Amino acid sequence: MKAYPECIPCLINQGLNAVRKLKLPKEKELEIAKRSLKFLSRFEEFDKSPAYYAYFIQQIVKEIAGTEDPFKEMKKLANQIALKMLEELQKDYQKASDKLAFSLKLSAVGNFIDFAVKGLFDVEREVKELLKKDFIVFDYEIFKERLKDAFCVLIIGDNAGEIAFDKLLVKTLKDMGKEVVYAVKGKPILNDATMEDAEEVSMTKLCKVIHNGSDKVGTWLEDCSEEFRKYFYEADIVISKGQANFETLSDADRDIFFLLVAKCNPIATETRGIVKGLIFKYKN
Amino acid sequence: MKAYPECIPCLINQGLNAVRKLKLPKEKELEIAKRSLKFLSRFEEFDKSPAYYAYFIQQIVKEIAGTEDPFKEMKKLANQIALKMLEELQKDYQKASDKLAFSLKLSAVGNFIDFAVKGLFDVEREVKELLKKDFIVFDYEIFKERLKDAFCVLIIGDNAGEIAFDKLLVKTLKDMGKEVVYAVKGKPILNDATMEDAEEVSMTKLCKVIHNGSDKVGTWLEDCSEEFRKYFYEADIVISKGQANFETLSDADRDIFFLLVAKCNPIATETRGIVKGLIFKYKN
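Predict the joint structure of the above. Result:
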């Protein structure tokens, strides 16, 4: 998808939010805002995905934070909190009559939560509230139909923390006899899950985990490794998680199931969902 | 007050919101965003008030809308809705044991409502909800003390619609024997009240109304008429309404009572209030 005009101020806000989340000195906020302005003001057209511009804003964040992995500690914390919660949630999973639908919902809910920002208590309450909601867009029948003949399922992961919640989806698909491959980022970008996170939450013990060889926001196929592209094009089913992967793969040359929570108007519009709505959308 | 870094994306959003409110063609949004980016990217420091930058963003809005008064129709509608509501509210005012406190609150509530955007029903509900709230910052004792010896009170108005709600404050002060002067903008800017609005809501029949000779966002004293500055410096009490007037007058060289609802974090921080909180703050 192409960036909307309202993505422009939001991109600047993303940089400012990073400064706050990382607890960098206050004066860094103005530096981020000014450099984001200068970067964005060079474009005559905004015909790339929001994630395209977001990548360069995050490069500014990395430079100002003075580290290649500014969200490292937050990712560790997010994994710990999500794993802790998963113990409880596994009981609900066991009770669920439709385990596939439950694990899809839990995976979408995981996409919405910023595990490392609030305390465990608030996260638990938020997850419980979100699990009560129905999907706003739910292409479940198509999914089950496609799943019948599928052998290999590729899940393109999104954030640390969230990756722990995806484990039940992987387990469910494996219990159905599918081969599951889970893809993470090749290098740190934002709080996106990397191989380190996959190991921390033991996703590596559950299924084959590959990295995409890229440090971009979302999935820029042209920047990904040959191995990732092979799985992307040859998997029978691709499940893509989160907004940035939707932004960068919504026009990709294969069919995809997008699993996410819409966090803003442009994504709600593009997915025909609503803001804060759980989305499981098929594009062919 | 000086702009906060988070004012920068907000300023771009203000331009985009104007396009939507004015129902201009969608493609104008990108134009506004791009021109705002280019304008803002020229600054090395952001040491002026947010309203300073907002003025230039609104100049871009005027140019793109192709009119000097793009909010003209919205202002008329806001006045009509506010006047309609005032009929009901006058009964509550009659019942109020402390008419001064009630009229201050109604005036603050009027500052929060975008009368022309929602329907009458929604506005009525919103006003009722807001009237139940207490002031978060309420320098009422100082105000009553200062009022004892005061002869002339200047009220610096803010928006169309809101100006109708201010009539009860003017009436109350007049009933206390004060001379009240109400100031509006010299020329159209945003949905700020001008002499036309003062006439539409019959403020002109209630007290002396002056215009400040300026078309700036907020009150830039150096851009205001001699007449306005005379009242500003010679009035015994100045009540300044809304965020933009707070932004531009918070460092002014006289004491002021600021009456507003904080609509964002920077203003909540500067007024020591909270977002959506009713504020009546004295600065000496």
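Chain B has a mean pLDDT of 95.
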